[in-house]
Specification:
Blueprint lengths: L4 E3 L27 H11 L2 E2 L2 E2 L4 H13 L6 H12 L4 E3 L1 H6 L11 E3 L7 H16 L3 E5 L20 H16 L8 E6 L5 H5 L11 E7 L1 H8 L3 E7 L11 E4 L8 E10 H15 L3 E4 H7 L10 E2 L6 E2 L4 E8 L4 E2 L7 E3 H21 L5 H10 L2 E6 L1 H8 L6 H29 L7 H5 L2 H4 L3 H10 L13 H6 L14 E7 L5 E7 L1 H10 L17 H12 L9 E4 L5 H13 L4 E6 L8 E3 L3
Parallel strand pairs: 1-17, 5-6, 6-7, 7-8, 8-12, 15-18, 21-22
Antiparallel strand pairs: 2-3, 4-15, 5-15, 9-11, 10-11, 12-22, 13-14, 16-17, 19-20, 19-23
Helix pairs in contact: 2-3, 5-6, 9-21, 11-14, 13-19, 14-17, 14-20
Amino acid sequence: MVLLRFVNCAASALTTLKPYTNLDSKMQTSPLKEAISEHVWHTKYQWLEGGHMQEPSIEATWDRVALAVSAVEVHHRNEWHERFRTLLRDFRFLPGGRILANAGTTRRATLFNCFVMGALEDSVQGIFNALREAMLTLQAGGGVGVDFSTLRPAGSQAVASGGVASGPASFMKVWEAANAVLEAGNLRRGAMMATLRCDHPDIEAFIQAKMVAGVLPHFNLSVLLTDEFMQALEVDGPWPLVFPLGSHPIPPGAEVCERVWSGAMAPQLCLVHKRIPARTLWDQLLEAELASAEPAALFIDRINRANNLWYCERISTTNPCGEVPLAPYGACNLGSINLARFVQHPFGAHPELDIAGIKAVAAVATRFLDNVHDVSVFPVKAQEKAAHASRRLGLGVTGLADMFAMLGLRYGSPASLELTREIMGVIRDTAYRTSVELAREKGGFPDFDRVRYGASPFVLQLPKDIQDAIAQHGIRNSHLLAVAPTGSISLLANNVSSGIEPIFAMKATRWIRGADGQPISFEVQDAAVRHYRELHGPGAPLPAQFVSAVEVSAEDQLHMMEAVQSCVDNAISKTVRLPASSTVHDMEMVLLRAWELGLKGCAVYREGSMSGASVVTTAQ
């Protein structure tokens, strides 16, 4: 058995950020060890202007970002510049891609990865104004979430024109077409999330929307599942499909009910269009997700109950990858602590995890991300207003699976789950304590309500000293934690395992877009695998703790998600992977288990389904 020890050196968060040069001597020559990492830096994050290279190395990129983000510091600006630069060095903290690409440049582009658009007004003018705002956001580099639940179902009478409404699915195609035109010649793919309530009359068409390969490629889809639906499913009861009446009178003999609909805080009177068995709708969702990996499930009532701002906002969608549920016009900036950089003596008899180092990075990263609010531009004025009202942050982690491998732990084992809870608890408590100190120094977020914020379920689970500090001093940020998929930034960091996912593959051929928009293939090796073979030789067999995603059971993946989510106030992005032989029953067990474990949502991918990634696994 490998003995795991923690390094708990007493240290100040402001003075202990030192490079981990012991992990890899090659870091002294070039931090970028994979060809794909060099390509990602050059095409996505290196500052080029007017065809001229502004940055000769990634170290120059780190300097640019640190200088830009420290510019808002009134006191000790030079010290914070150096601390931020040390924070970024050696890939220990990976800011969101928009920060890396745009901070300190002359581009008028946002530093926020995540946006949710305003509630769609059910009119031609309202719909196309929302489309304009979404395209402005995508053009500025942000991904967008759009809830289409406020649009009338197909076949409804359009009172103003006398015509017939075409329904949400038709307008999703408009968003898709506009995004495709905007993307032409742009290296960054415009990402969007579309959601629809499970009681919307067009929900069946929404579920089927991506069953044909190649349809709506810029959209991720999620169904908003309510508590009421899950209860109807449990008793195999009927399920009403409804839509708000608005100012229309109740038709003679019609059935009505009340719902707190998307875009509203209070219940609205809704017309029941028809009833179907809850099981029928559920089976359609399972079959679609098995075939195409979409739509995912969002447990929307649970999301709203757990929201720290339950008292002043209603959430009905998320950013494109699902890690940040947001109210209309909400925004969030992201950053991830690379856990693999905190393993000392990896693969040895007595590996150590530097918990004190993680804590130090979490403290400085919280301030770094808070500063991003004050240096970023926003594509739409309403986004700026909403972002500053809450000052949401999304501090998360990446490299979790590589960290396990270096420590001799199997992903999903009881020891790995226990360690994950400890790490995430340290990051959570450090972020909240730092945010309280920032509130004392700079002021709290404008929407803070001492009593109601303190009654939020997540806040009530914090250590008592943090709750008392919030009550006394306030807090700078309404939310502080989110776990993103970290796709590009993990590739940049020499193909470290992404987010909290298992290692995808020990070796693989990966296809990504080149400068001319055409796909380019790269042979990639997982960062932990590369380091092990640097220590033990290129032909050395990998030890048992190296497991790929397809070798980790769905149950173990779900327990890992639960362990992380318990310490995260926003949400987490992770896809449960199932083998190609999986059935509808297997899919059902995953979604029901996600519900039972208290997760906020769940996305599932069956190997070989339509939404396959552009990665080909090769031999170890």
